[in-house]
Design goal:
The complex is a heterotetramer, with two copies of chain A (291 residues) and two copies of chain B (309 residues).
Chain A (H helix, E strand, L loop, with lengths): L1 H20 L18 E12 L4 E6 L10 E5 L10 E4 L2 E3 L4 E7 L3 H7 L6 E8 L11 E7 L3 H13 L4 E7 L9 H4 L4 E4 L6 E2 L2 H7 L2 H4 L2 E6 L2 H14 L2 E5 L15 E4 L2 E4 L6 E3 L7
Parallel strand pairs in A: 8-9, 8-12, 9-10, 10-11, 12-13
Antiparallel strand pairs in A: 1-2, 1-7, 2-6, 3-4, 3-7, 5-6, 13-16, 14-15
Chain B lengths: L1 H5 L5 E3 L2 E3 L3 E3 L21 E7 L12 E4 L2 E4 L7 H13 L5 E6 L4 H12 L7 E4 L16 H14 L4 E4 L7 H10 L4 E4 L3 E3 L2 E2 L4 E2 L6 E4 L4 H14 L4 E4 L5 H9 L4 E4 L1 H5 L3 H15 L15
Helix pairs in contact in B: 3-4, 4-5, 5-6, 6-7, 7-9
Classes of the chains: A alpha/beta (291), B alpha/beta (309).
The structure holds flavin-adenine dinucleotide (FAD) (2 copies), flavin mononucleotide (FMN) (2 copies) and FE2/S2 (inorganic) cluster (2 copies).
């Protein structure tokens, strides 16, 4: 039930993007859809905050409104003015029974360092769910999910959703080396194909090289869904173009407001600028002007 | 205490218009209002200063457009906006139903453009005043920002004033040697109020990529980092002109707002603070009311008289 | 790698003088050197820019003189200093023995005062150049800061130049509409280099006491908060003049220093950063050397050529 | 041995203050004394960090160079730019055998909040010892030590020193209410007279009222040493003037450099401005121009 609603939501939002949001002049004319998910600001309690690999942490948060795979939320990491802006993170799972949402994050700079130091019981100022997530391609014969590094979160969430829906999917995860593979049951449950740059585990090479190693017949009428570093997204896009299949990419851009107000987070599309936080973060890869 | 607070007059007069509270949201940080619908209590707001409105729609600058700096942010949005026609037809219907005052922020690259935008807005209902963003470069004047040149400020203000039935708020740029002479030029030209300040010119260089982070090179610095500069300018401007002053710059909480109001501002705007926590404007509105209550002030505008001098 | 680093030329030329490294300590933040004796490796420093030297000793302003702001500090020291005579007799004997260059920072409230200070310093050995602080109000000119008025900057510079046997570094105030015209006025007057920037005017109000925290009202804002402003000004000044530019403002680490140098500065100064951690200047000196080593630069001054434009 | 050196040091430094540091024009002419304690910058390890009252914490730090009572050090609480400046704190004890120094601090704002969250084993960037501490008045018949609130630290350290030297002293501590009395053995060992504003323990009243309750004969030829809130320092000063006894006060002022370089931390004396960090923080109370 819950998942079906989401799909409708996403489908309609994506429709908005291409038919209403981008005028001919390339500017944005965001029209509020009645199906748009309602975001809220909450003080969520941290239920767990565990290191799952040398670089990655998983955080579980209470009292989340229901998100869809590919949507994100923003966190104010501290009351101080450094870091100042809220930081965006994708949902990596959601339990509708308990209202518990999860995320997987990498300790990089000031905000994620503070987050990593938080204890269960501490609260965090959260705004979400935000943006438009993945749209499951109902007509696809097979769903190929590709995650690179910390792009893992939203792809895992999508995999959960596909599994629940009983759809046929493959989960591909790429990282530099074996030690970086996250120690996470949710991850292992999807029977992931692991690609390591150094060949220390699984496929020797990156995720795009893995995709290219697949037979054409295998990817026929497949749909690609991907999140990760920019070169990987572009590689997936080119691969999909080449095979004539659809590809959805989750884009990253520095955000200020996260809710579509500041015009700060734009990506260039073949129809002008779009806001990653509002028309995205997930886009059909063919609309993006790949640099 | 509850009773006491109810009798406090939180409204603020700007020329002929009245804002329900002294707490506005700053241009460019609140879009066209609807974006914050589920997050903000509009009835606590004094006014929404909209994203800049220009004659034609503007796609804005290359990305990245935002970078965080120590206690601040640097932005280079490039006045991305839907243009005045769509603003009137698509944004105003939503905005005019809100309980707070709506004040479009007008930008242009020639006097004619400012005039054309204002003329179209004159025909639109539900607007209480205009905020004129004079930080824009004047393309007919060597690209020098209107707001850095007193004669240009006075002429632009008086031309707009002559065609406007609504109060004019001139928004000053801080990137000047003496902001008080610019404020006086605006007053001379007939401005009903002054907004103080817009962003400071700043730059961050990506030393790995060996180029400025913002493709435009420089951007506008805002946030708590600039607050001391903004308070100083508000203090000086409030003593240089006799029209109301609206304080802006790095306001994050009630104490920050009080600093601007004690410096002489009758109202304030929250900009970057809205990004950080959209509940900040309403917290400040409540905080100012509490302050008045505990200091036996019957009228929020009395705060600006608390500082001698 | 060690060998590679040893062959890197870390020295920087300012007019006729040479600084052993591009990393100076900013005026007013390093006293007269001895205060940091046990904490700083003087041999890593390019230059000590001393506390401002005035003709007569100055007691300075009322306290408090310092307040922290978001990522910055606001100060109102009031040029407290021992005066030029004691500077020469008591401070220079210590300073001239140090391995780094000594550059007194000269301040005054009239042209005559600047001239008198420089004349006395001319007779003193161990000084390699002068830094002229033109942020001071000119009491004979309505109290307007020298540095905000191009004719005054050019005249003052040329008068000082005519009596100086040592390079003159003009230190600009950022509180101007267009810093490039002031820089060009200094160059026109014969300046050998530009220091960029001094502090921004700021104010903090104590809302409990209902008065500015600093008894003088406004003070000077420095620290990481102002860095984007300082980088932008350095970038613009470096493109406006052909004399060397020294970048200053919120530098805390090697990356910050690289931003200024890529913006076009040939050297930098650490001010507020020295308060935060006195080892910052030496870390930056080592960091710049490592940067040159790993980017195959034989000369630290090549850094300023890395950014196109 | 160690203590004797300190006394000499302090005496000479105080001599400097009055005869050299303040010229007739009121400006400072700080001459470096060969006896001046050498300050160093160290990464000190936190040995203990315990809450000793609702507001106060005691922190023990390793590898401290030896300080004298009344001297202080500065801490950089974090690598962030908020808080930016180093914060000054007085030493509350020192163990010359282990090199362990202690401080007592109150959680007030950003720096002390970060400090309170530190764990044993964490390191802190410390510069010290700084400034000039208390000078024990050798000719005094009795030493009266008065601490108010978080002024406790340096006074405790002085008490340790007087105890070791076998001198006759009384320790007076003032706070608002009983709950604020620190749970600290070092404190109890000095058999303190406790004054509470609300009378919930010990003397009902503030420390100055307590001093005024003492018979004139008792304070005859006594010396006063005090640290605490400004009104208390002024009250002690006026009390000492009235009884014709000497009084040393430890002053507070916002500091930027902490080492005498910035001229930021001045107090007004009857002979012009002096730097709290260099000519102080301890001064003869009669030289201060009390506001
Ligand atoms: C839609 C979206 C979803 C994301 N999901 C995840 C996720 O699931 N897990 C995860 O680890 N990371 C995710 N990120 C990236 C995450 O936002 C950054 O890692 C985080 O902001 C870093 O903050 P910091 O202070 O720790 O590091 P910083 O030092 O501030 O930044 C490190 C890098 O993070 C990026 N960044 C910084 N500030 C912002 C900002 N305000 N908005 C966007 N990017 C910024 C910049 O590229 C920067 O170079 C997502 C980003 C976006 C836009
Ligand atoms: C010589 C000296 C010795 C001190 N000894 C102790 C001690 O033993 N224990 C203790 O708890 N406190 C002591 N203090 C006070 C201590 O320095 C402040 O409590 C601390 O700086 C507060 O920092 P914060 O960031 O937590 O709070 P903030 O919110 O920054 O400040 C709270 C108050 O502390 C004071 N303060 C802030 N910054 C500074 C600064 N850079 N320099 C001086 N004061 C400042 C101000 O009065 C401010 O209102 C001493 C101060 C001085 C000058
Ligand atoms: C992302 C962004 C966009 C802005 N756009 C505008 C604008 O269109 N017109 C305008 O007058 N000011 C604009 N400003 C300036 C703000 O309205 C405000 O004057 C400034 O940010 C200082 O306030 P703050 O520190 O509270 O943000 C913008 C500021 C930001 C951060
Ligand atoms: C406490 C203090 C005192 C200063 N005194 C002087 C001075 O006497 N002369 C001068 O030219 N600049 C003075 N400055 C300005 C600094 O030299 C420097 O230009 C400014 O602080 C910006 O650099 P920063 O951000 O690294 O501190 C002073 C700055 C501070 C913080
Ligand atoms: S972050 Fe503000 S519009 Fe996307
Ligand atoms: S804090 Fe700098 S002189 Fe005392």
């Amino acid at each position: 039930m819950h998942c079906t609603t989401k799909s409708v939501q996403i489908a309609i939002s994506n429709f908005n993007l291409h038919d209403q949001c981008l005028g001919n002049s390339g500017q944005l004319t965001h029209t509020k859809s009645i199906f748009e998910p309602m975001n809220t600001q909450t003080k969520s309690q941290i239920i767990a905050n565990t290191q799952v690999s040398p670089d990655f942490y998983e955080m579980q948060l209470s009292a989340s409104p229901p998100p869809a795979p590919g949507q994100f939320f923003t966190i104010r990491a501290s009351d101080s003015t450094v870091p100042l802006l809220r930081r965006p993170f994708a949902y990596s799972s959601f339990d509708p029974k308990t209202g518990t949402a999860s995320m997987i994050y990498q300790k990089l700079g000031p905000a994620t360092e503070i987050m990593a130091s938080k204890q269960p019981g501490d609260t965090l100022d959260i705004i979400g769910p935000l943006g438009i997530g993945f749209e499951v391609q109902k007509k696809a014969s097979k769903h190929i999910l590709v995650a690179g590094g910390v792009g893992l979160g939203p792809v895992l969430f999508l995999a959960d959703h596909l599994k629940e829906s009983g759809l046929d999917y493959t989960f591909v995860f790429g990282c530099r080396t074996k030690a970086q593979i996250p120690d996470l049951r949710q991850f292992r449950e999807h029977g992931p194909v692991v690609c390591t740059d150094d060949g220390s585990d699984g496929f020797h090479g990156n995720t795009v090289q893995y995709l290219e190693s697949l037979e054409r017949a295998y990817t026929d009428r497949a749909a690609l869904y991907t999140c990760g570093p920019h070169p990987m997204l572009k590689g997936c896009h080119l691969f999909a173009q080449n095979r004539g299949i659809s590809c959805q990419v989750s884009m990253e851009q520095t955000m200020a407001c996260g809710v579509g107000a500041c015009m700060g987070c734009v990506e260039k599309t073949n129809d002008g600028y779009v806001r990653v936080c509002q028309e995205g973060p997930v886009f059909e890869s063919r609309v993006i002007e790949w640099a | 205490m509850g009773n006491k607070h109810q009798s406090i007059d939180m409204s603020v007069k700007i020329g002929s218009c009245t804002l329900p509270t002294p707490v506005g949201v700053a241009s460019g940080t609140f879009g066209y209002g609807s974006e914050y619908e589920s997050l903000v209590d509009f009835s606590a707001l004094g006014a929404i200063f909209t994203k800049a409105v220009t004659l034609k729609p503007r796609p804005g600058n290359e990305m990245p457009r935002i970078i965080e700096t120590p206690s601040g942010i640097l932005n280079s949005i490039g006045l991305a906006n839907v243009g005045v026609d769509q603003f009137v037809s698509e944004k105003m219907p939503y905005l005019r139903e809100l309980p707070c005052a709506i004040i479009p922020n007008i930008a242009g690259s020639t006097e004619e453009e400012y005039i054309a935008v204002l003329e179209r807005l004159e025909k639109c209902e539900g607007i209480v005043a205009y905020e004129i963003n004079i930080s824009c470069p004047n393309v007919k004047h060597g690209g020098i920002a209107f707001g850095t040149d007193c004669p240009q400020v006075e002429t632009l203000t008086s031309k707009l004033k002559s065609i406007s039935t609504r109060p004019l708020i001139i928004k000053l740029t801080p990137n000047v040697t003496d902001i008080t002479v610019v404020a006086r030029a605006a007053e001379q030209g007939g401005a009903d109020a002054i907004s103080c300040i817009n962003t400071l010119v700043g730059m961050v260089i990506d030393t790995n990529k060996r180029r400025p982070v913002l493709p435009a090179g420089t951007g506008g610095l805002s946030g708590p980092a600039v607050r001391p500069v903004a308070v100083a300018m508000t203090y000086r401007v409030a003593r240089a002109v006799s029209i109301p002053v609206i304080g802006i710059g790095g306001i994050m909480n009630t104490d920050d707002a009080l600093q601007f109001m004690m410096a002489g501002a009758c109202a304030i705007q929250v900009g970057t603070g809205v990004f950080v926590d959209p509940s900040i404007p309403q917290s400040i509105a409540h905080g100012l009311q509490n302050f008045c209550g505990s200091h036996d002030l019957g009228d929020v505008s009395e705060i600006s008289k608390l500082l001698p001098g």
